[in-house]
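[User]
Protein folding is very new to me. Any chance you could explain this protein sequence and its structure tokens? I have pasted everything here:
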Amino acid sequence: MDDLVIRVDGTRPLSAELVAAFETLCDSVEDRADRNTVIMHVSGAPEEPSNEDITIALVSKWERTLRRFERLPAATVAVASDDCGGVALEALLATDYRIGTASLRLLMARRALVTWPGMALYRIVRQAGSAAVRRAVLLGLPIMAADAVAMRLIDELTVDTQTALTAATELAEAIPGPELAIRRQLMQDAPGVSFEEALGAHLAACERALRLSAAEIGR
């Protein structure tokens, strides 16, 4: 299980090593059909505002890698605690199920006195709505734990993260990873496509589900 667990420290800047760690994790998931749950632990936020040197090439590679992670044929479960910003928030927003502690604060990273306009901004708006996150995105104000739950950015708060993680993992393990990935993609595509555009993909998924059902009955 250790190879399907990753820890992201938001106090550290984006680096080639972090990108490589995520790429290795994605390789492990894609190469092993017998495992379908990834565990992520995230915490920490960069100093405000960050003055670390990064390049657009590195940012682009990180965003592509996170997109690959977001599409894995596996459930991804995150545990977030205390301040969570920078790369920790970016990674958190790419997971399927999120467990938080009462001390959690979600923080948009800042550079040159303004919030960083990376894909975390895109994800947080798509997931919570622009009105809900306006103050965080425009002014850099923290999103507190209870508000994060109300916005559906966090699925549950707990004082016993291990018990919550075990329960979430058991639930996720019951769902075949490839099937979860198909439904995740359909869900993510739904707000941006018309009924006519979506119909073909949904019918294909329904046909696949019928074949799987028939195979189960025939056992």
